[in-house]
Amino acid sequence: MLATARLVWEDRFRRRIGRGALDRGMTTSEYAVGTIAACAFAAVLYKVVTSGAVLSALQSLIKDALDAKF
Fold first, then answer.
1. How far apart are the C-alpha atoms of 23 and 63, rounded to whole Å?
2. What gap in Å lies between CA 56 and CA 2, rounded to an integer?
3. 3-class SS of residue 57
4. 3-class SS shares of the chain: helix, strand, coil, % to 5
5. Is the pTM of this model over 0.90?
6. Can you give the pLDDT at residue 18?
7. DSSP tag of 23
8. Tens of pLDDT, residues 8-64
9. In Å, what is the CA distance from 38 to each residue of 30, 33, 34, 47?
10. What is the distance between the alpha carbons of residues 59 and 56, in angstroms, rounded to a whole number?
11. Of residues 22, 3, 26, the one with CA closest to residue 13
């Protein structure tokens, strides 16, 4: 009886491994990688927006918008 229960348990365990049921920590690592990628993208975007060329273009755009005649 005990041997039969063990075989049933081992069969269920093998099926779960085959379906990937033991990858419970995978979502946490995916969130971590996604967060790091988002921070890196934000840092690059910040550098681009605060560069001299983009700053002068934005200032010119705002100046032209404020000087517009209605």
1. 55
2. 79
3. helix
4. 80, 0, 20
5. no
6. 63
7. -
8. 777 777 777 666 555 556 678 888 999 999 999 999 999 998 999 989 999 999 999
9. 12, 9, 6, 14
10. 5
11. 22
